[in-house]
Amino acid sequence: MTNNRSGAQIFFVALTACLIAAACSTGTATQAAVSTPTPSATAKATPTESPTPSPTVEITLDPSASESASASDSAAPSEVPSASSSAMPSASPTSAAAACTGSADNQAFFANTAGLMKFDVYCASLPAKWYLTAGGYTQPKGGTVTITYQKTGGGQLDISEGAFCTGTCNTHVSTLGSASFGSLSGEFDLLSASPDVYVIYVNPGTATAYSIKGTGVTQADFKNLAAAMVKVPKP
Q1: Contact of 201 with 190, CB cutoff 8 Å
Q2: Domain range summary for the chain, segments of one domain joined by +
Q3: DSSP state, 33?
Q4: How do residues 6-60 score in pLDDT, each as one tens digit?
Q5: 208 CB-side CA count, 13 A
Q6: What are 82-115's pLDDT values in tens digits?
Q7: 58: β partners
Q8: What b/e sequence results for 191-220 when a residue is b if at least 16 CB atoms lie within 10 Å of its CB, and e otherwise?
Q9: pTM of the model
Q10: What is the C-alpha to C-alpha distance for residues 154 and 198, in angstroms, rounded to an integer?
Q11: Which residues contact residue 232 at a Cβ distance below 8 angstroms, ignoring those fewer than 6 apart?
């Protein structure tokens, strides 16, 4: 009887040990099966640098001229946005560009631009009823200056200076001879007919080129207006 009880106790102890070992083994396997996920790396895009735009400056128009033109000519253009104050200093009464048609700020624009360009800058010195409607300059690739004047009731002058054209830069339908662009002598052409549009070319296709186009003006008036172009002194 004693031997049977001892055997039962031994069997119970052994069975208990096996169950405990099995439970421990199961727990260990479960832990090993669980893995902590490694967070995936997040790619960061490197921002692409935007290209630097070419520096361009536009003329500040004379508000009184625009208002006067709008009152008498419904087709008058709207005002051009002002340029930054650093590029458009205020003009003094003794401005080097005092002969240029336009406001004091317009004249300051021409005086400043003349100092920036390698070529000579010209402005228009026009009679009454002519006013400035647009203008500006760019500096890359030799630099360019563009200007537009209009006359109350009709008439327009479009002027380009500097390296504004390459290739065929003196297009026309007929040649009329020679004419003056300020102090410069140029080729006088009929650009188009019906209506007649006149043009003068100086050094076309070069970095020191000039052109003036006249629309809505007579041939005689156009030649007189072109001859009145004024070279702005460099500072």
Answers
A1: no
A2: 56-231
A3: H
A4: 444 544 444 444 444 444 344 433 333 333 444 444 334 333 344 444 455 666 5
A5: 5
A6: 333 334 444 444 477 999 999 999 999 999 999 9
A7: 136
A8: beeeebbbbbbbbbeeeebbbbbbbbbeee
A9: 0.66
A10: 15
A11: 96, 97, 100, 110, 111, 113, 114, 120, 121, 122, 123
